[in-house]
């Protein structure tokens, strides 16, 4: 027997969503973001499911990059935050990882490195997010220095990142892109700017490489548009089973703190899923849960291992009935929005207790 809570990983959804990226950015190469264990889906599961459809993978750190290499992912792997110590440069070269350099100290490590094989680089420009990246004033000089290094192979890709691409009308996006274009004018290199939100709304920003993350997993990066309207399909279905049913009288309270009080005689189903399985503790009463094809509603606080759901109007529900917490219906963005967060956080925060069950197409 196994705990009934599981996350099915839908490879057909992942592959479909790569197709949406291709459709939106037909002439760009795709650097698929699989950091944070493939946004909680399992980096290896995701990378093997779409390896033949994309041009490379982006990760946050060297551990994530080496995990891909250990599992036979052979193409470009980009370290988005670059090396975090001088030693990582040797490792990156040995495993043919691409370093995204964003700070003078990283350039110094590279300058001092004594490498057997040269390493590929991207050069990140701070166009206004003020998180990582070289200041525009030093980019031309830094680009030349990088190209002159014997330990660097190829021409560095020039890249930047939007701070507000999820608000497409925000003029800050144009300001950042204009800053990028001014900064790279006269430098002969490929460009990369677009995350999911920019892929979906800013064709000008597609350039040579796009860097989709969240949209690959079927989520919408926008609060004002759902994933279905963007043509995306979910890549995860989080489900569990009903493990108990009880009748409560009108006025009885359910769960920690007695937050939910039965407005009428009610039937309550207890489900084996809680915040220890990745379901958000801040989900409010009324949050939808799909059981036996109908939307039931959360009744009472989310516990670590269980939730309670009002199934008064769904008589077919019994012990053992399967329930969907997120997937096609409801989608993870809905659950996140109700819980005061974003789907990115729910997916990336999925704990290891919840088994990921890979479903091949
Ligand atoms: C995570 C990340 C992305 C992908 O962003 P999404 O919004 O998930 O598409 C792109 N570029 C950089 C630098 C990132 O860190």
Keywords:
alpha/beta, eight-stranded parallel β-sheet, 18 strands, 361 residues, elongated
Poorly predicted regions are none
Strand content: 15-25%
How would you classify the helix and strand content by structural class? alpha/beta
The share of residues in helices is 25-40%
Overall 3D form = elongated
Largest sheet data:
8 strands, parallel
The end-to-end distance, rounded to whole angstroms, is: 26 Å
How many helix segments? Answer: 11
Q: Multimeric state of these chains?
A: single chain
> Average pLDDT across residues?
97
| Ligand identities | pyridoxal-5'-phosphate
Molecular structure report:
With 361 residues, the chain is of the alpha/beta class. Helix content is 27%, strand content 23%. The protein contains eleven helices and 18 strands. The chain has helices at 11-24, 35-39, 43-50, 62-70, 87-94, 104-112, 136-148, 171-184, 196-201, 332-338, 343-348, and strands at residues 6-10, 29-33, 56-59, 77-79, 98-101, 119-124, 152-159, 191-192, 209-210, 236-248, 253-254, 260-261, 266-271, 288-291, 294-298, 307-310, 322-326, 356-359. The strands form three sheets. It has an eight-stranded parallel sheet with strand order 8-7-6-5-4-3-2-9. It has a six-stranded antiparallel β-barrel with strand order 10-13-16-15-14-17. It has a two-stranded antiparallel sheet with strand order 11-12. A hairpin with a 5-residue loop joins strand 11 and strand 12. The longest helix is centred in the N-terminal third of the chain and has 14 residues, at 11-24. It is elongated, with a radius of gyration of 23 Å. It starts with 5 loop residues before the first strand and ends with a strand. The model has no long low-confidence stretch (mean pLDDT 97). Pyridoxal-5'-phosphate binds next to helix 9.
